[in-house]
Structures are given as C-alpha cells and as structure tokens.
Amino acid sequence: MTHLLxxxxxxxxxxxxxxxxxxxxxxxxxxxxxEQMRRFDRGRDFEYAFKAQFxxxxxxxxxxxxxxxxxxERTAELLGGVGRRRAASADDTAADSGRGTPRPYGVVLFxxxxxxxxxxxxxxxxxxxxxxxxDIYEVKSGTTLSDTYRRDAALQHxxxxxxxxxxxxxxxxxxxxxxxxxxGQGGQDGSFAIVDLTLDLAAEGDRIAANIAEMKTIVxxxxxxxxxxxxxxxxxxxxxxxxxxxxxxxxxxxx
Length: 255
Fold this sequence. Notes:
Layout: E1 5-6, H1 7-15, H2 17-25, H3 34-51, E2 58-59, H4 60-64, H5 71-79, H6 90-95, E3 107-116, E4 119-128, E5 134-139, H7 147-161, E6 166-174, E7 184-186, E8 192-196, H8 198-202, H9 205-220, H10 242-254
Parallel strand pairs: 1-4, 2-3, 5-6
Antiparallel strand pairs: 3-4, 4-5, 6-8, 7-8
C-alpha cells in the first residue's frame, strides 16, 4: 500500500510547506552538511545501543531494506491478529507502573511499519505484550526532550493507535547529563532517559488529523509553493533545501 507522508516528511511540513513539497517531488535538491551527516550517524549509534537491550528483536529494515511500502504488511504478519485497534483506557495507562523499563516480550520488532490516513510510520522499537497491545519506544539521541521529539511521537501514536492497541508510548533520549525528566527512568548504564508520554500523545489526535489533511493538500499540488525564506529555514533544523530556495533570491538581487 503506497503512502503520501512519513514521519520525517510530517516534521518537515511543520517547519515549511515548501520544504515538504520538495521532499516529495524534488528530494535530489537536498543538500546536507558534513555536521548534519555526523549527527545522523550519532543518532543511529545511540539507537543501536538501545536496541541491543532486545537481543531477540526482529529488524524489518534488514529484511525489507528500502521496500518501505511492504513494512506495514510484514509488521501485521509478525504481530498477528491480537491487539488490533482498541484504544487504551486511562485504567490501562495507569495499570503498569514499571513499564518505562524494557521487559521481556513475546515479539519485539525494530522499524515496524504502520499505515493510516496515507501516513506511514516506522517505529524504532515495538514490543508486543501478552494481550497483544504494544509498548513503543521512540529513540532520540538528544539530551533534552524537545518539542520536535514530542511532535514526532504524537504522529506515530496517532497512526499506530488506529492500527493496534497502544499500551504505552515512550521516548528514549540521552540521559548522560543525569537529568531524566518527569516520569523518566535511566537505562542500565545511566545513558537512557525513558519518558512515558502515552496520555499526552493520545490527546493530540484532532490536531494531528488536521495537520495531515493540510499536508496532503500540499503534497498533491502540482506546483512548488512560493514560501519565502526566513528564520523557519533554520529551526528546528537547518533545512537542506536552503540553497535551492535562496537561488532565486540571489538572482533577483543581481538585477
């Protein structure tokens, strides 16, 4: 099943509608700096370190590679028919006080795919509990729980909760500074801060749906938006399309 948006494109769209359109239609125009590439590498290394706590995890990326539209079907096969589409109640959310720490599971998947509303998300670590519901860990290498991390997680929760019952959704970030945040719990080596945001993310559903509808309109447009450059080109991330967007500005300045 093909998709229109992914979580990276969604975050791009929150930053700039022009960057979103380019990400879909002209990704060849993206230019990444050496520092950005090093940041990507550090993020992968941190993610691998957390995944090492689940030695029996099945890595769908190793199996499927870039066949991204096959991930959701393969995930459904591995998880089976248990735990489909039942929203977790407040009682469910409060029931397990120890869920912030990885525990034994029946099935653990890395890069599990879920698709809903033309959006495909690949979750870093998905753990299936005995009742079929899922504990999800989104792994970020930053040392603070940023708003961007929360927006990323909110989209994933929205998509996955429409496919399966989500028991918990936690963000894992770098706790080496010793600050794990509210409801946080350090990893075995002190480097993992695990924060359960299930209730907060569940409350974002209506806003997420509205954002998706707007972004799908942008993606389906045949012409590139004429969004001007500005401070949004640098926050929350330096946009890889700055060179493309500023090219026309420089040409106008010559005249």
